[in-house]
Amino acid sequence: MIRTGISLLALLAATPALAEDADEIVVTALGIEQPTDEVGQAVTVIDEKTIETRQNVSIADLLITTPGVRFNRADAVGGVTGISIRGAETTQTLVLLDGVKINDPSVIGDAYDFGNLLTGNIRRIEILRGSNSVVYGSQAIGGVVNIMSAEPGEGFGGSASVDYGYADTLNAKADISGSTGIASGSAGVAYFRTDGISAAQGGTEKDGYENIATHAKLKLAFTDNLSLDLRGYYIHADLDTDIFFGAPAESTDSSKLDQYVGYAGLNLSSFDGKLTQRAAVTWFRNDRDYFFAPSSAPDYGYSGTNLRFEYEGVYQPVDQAKLVFGYEHERPKYDSFFYDFFTGDKVVSGAEVNIDSVYALAVVKPFVGLSVTGGVRHDDHSQFGGATTFGANANYTPNEGRTNIRASYGEGFRAPSLYQIYDATYGNLDLKPERSKSYDIGFDQSLDEGRAMISVTAFRRDTRDQIYFDGFALPFGRYVNLTRTRAKGVEAALTLKPVDALTVVAAYSYIDAIDRSEGGLNEGRRLPRRAKDAVSVSADYDWSFGLSTGATVTMVGDSFNDAANTQRLDGYARLDLRASLPINEHLEIYGRIDNVTDEEYATVYGYSTYGRSAYGGVRVRF
């Protein structure tokens, strides 16, 4: 059934239609604002209306409805969640939150755990697919996920919502924004708690979860040319989970997380706006403590910190040419502790490195309709030395954005994580950075004055020196450079608006991600937890009397849980329903039913996912 459904929707997505609004502005491709018809890379935008309409709690559940994205979650809501873009490792996804790089230096591979990032205060997400280390440096091999909280608005206003449902789940959030004189700002808080389900499949003990998130933004416009941006984000999370040894088993294990994100940036415009400059300091800290049983002290824990300085300049002497250049310095650091099993002594370890980077990109429009971008970056890592990356892309539109033909080439690299380098048991000081080359070509087409939109992209990425854990290395295994991988495939996104009241959005992707290590144990096998086929279709209808109803169908093909392809993860099809009804201009009631058919599936072997569950709530605006 899954294969048939995917094939039919793939054929549907291949019929002529259109892409994103040519007037839409994105910031992720170049790190600055650009109209989409100037961007030669594949970028998908999830806007505020979509986030509110879908009613999803987890950011990951929104991301998997976009082309080329796969995810795995080891646990229910709040469990460790990884995002893979175009078949890349989850450690090869770079993540930004309000302009701050939030990949965790204390996690294996500097990955970011999406499990604790909920949609409460989030208003916009941009997903860039393809290697792009020229702009972002280490990590951006698969792509970039750029997440933004609410921006300050004109005047004064706010909103609040609360909903309740299955497993005694409470989800509440509130935010305000306003401006006066030279100052504008916004702030918000979100709270989520649930009794949950058993993390281990077949278990009976419920594993609960609680999450509190706050954010604040303040902008001071001293003059028309000089302003100061201050941003902050904080998450605290408590998760009950089940112990993992081979397969999850019920236990009293739990964890606590505190995550801090800070940004302070000064913006200056000069020479009649031809030169804009930004200097910023960003700070990220992630503290994770783990408990074998309820107690007053953790049994082991990790702390990752990254302090960055960023300078960026944009010089545009004429409309047809733009130069982007910059310098970055960052100092990632990790600390860990555990208690020796035999002596009971506390064992503490840690490390830090310094990374200095310079980059330059040029955007040139040689004639009307054509935009060409090219750039180079050099990163100097205090442990493994220098890495230079190149990138180029082009976008041609013969008809003012109704048709866009795109092509891009991007190089990516990922520095070995501090854990992979310095861990006393598994670390390897001789590791080299992972390197990739990514190619794609695609088109966007608009028909019927924007009522039909399609985007189709073919891609390929080759990665070398990929880091993996060699369990056979003496004495206890260690991290080595061995694996070569290749990922290739096709992505398609379709939007239809046959009448004003109906919107249909579909996304399909085929990803063939293979281990290509010559002579390796897993040569020719599929990379784990990356289904070849995935499709998502969402439809929303606004009735004449105010009611809005919608549904999302997500179908994912079979995959394997392990590199040896011995543990199969069966494909699944999931249906979610939603509705909302405004009572007046300030009050709205809403609700949803997730996994309507009560599908049983897993994205990580041995871990549970939610069955059929219903939620309802109320939203107010002022």
UniProtKB/TrEMBL annotation:
<dbReference type="InterPro" id="IPR037066">
    <property type="entry name" value="Plug_dom_sf"/>
</dbReference>
<feature type="signal peptide">
    <location>
        <begin position="1"/>
        <end position="19"/>
    </location>
</feature>
<keyword id="KW-0732">Signal</keyword>
<keyword id="KW-0813">Transport</keyword>
<comment type="similarity">
    <text>Belongs to the TonB-dependent receptor family.</text>
</comment>
<dbReference type="InterPro" id="IPR012910">
    <property type="entry name" value="Plug_dom"/>
</dbReference>
<feature type="domain" description="TonB-dependent receptor plug">
    <location>
        <begin position="37"/>
        <end position="144"/>
    </location>
</feature>
<protein>
    <submittedName>
        <fullName>TonB-dependent receptor</fullName>
    </submittedName>
</protein>
<keyword id="KW-0812">Transmembrane</keyword>
<dbReference type="InterPro" id="IPR000531">
    <property type="entry name" value="Beta-barrel_TonB"/>
</dbReference>
<dbReference type="InterPro" id="IPR036942">
    <property type="entry name" value="Beta-barrel_TonB_sf"/>
</dbReference>
<keyword id="KW-0998">Cell outer membrane</keyword>
<keyword id="KW-0472">Membrane</keyword>
<keyword id="KW-0798">TonB box</keyword>
<feature type="domain" description="TonB-dependent receptor-like beta-barrel">
    <location>
        <begin position="206"/>
        <end position="596"/>
    </location>
</feature>
<keyword id="KW-1134">Transmembrane beta strand</keyword>
<dbReference type="Pfam" id="PF00593">
    <property type="entry name" value="TonB_dep_Rec_b-barrel"/>
</dbReference>
<dbReference type="InterPro" id="IPR039426">
    <property type="entry name" value="TonB-dep_rcpt-like"/>
</dbReference>
<keyword id="KW-0675">Receptor</keyword>
<dbReference type="Pfam" id="PF07715">
    <property type="entry name" value="Plug"/>
</dbReference>
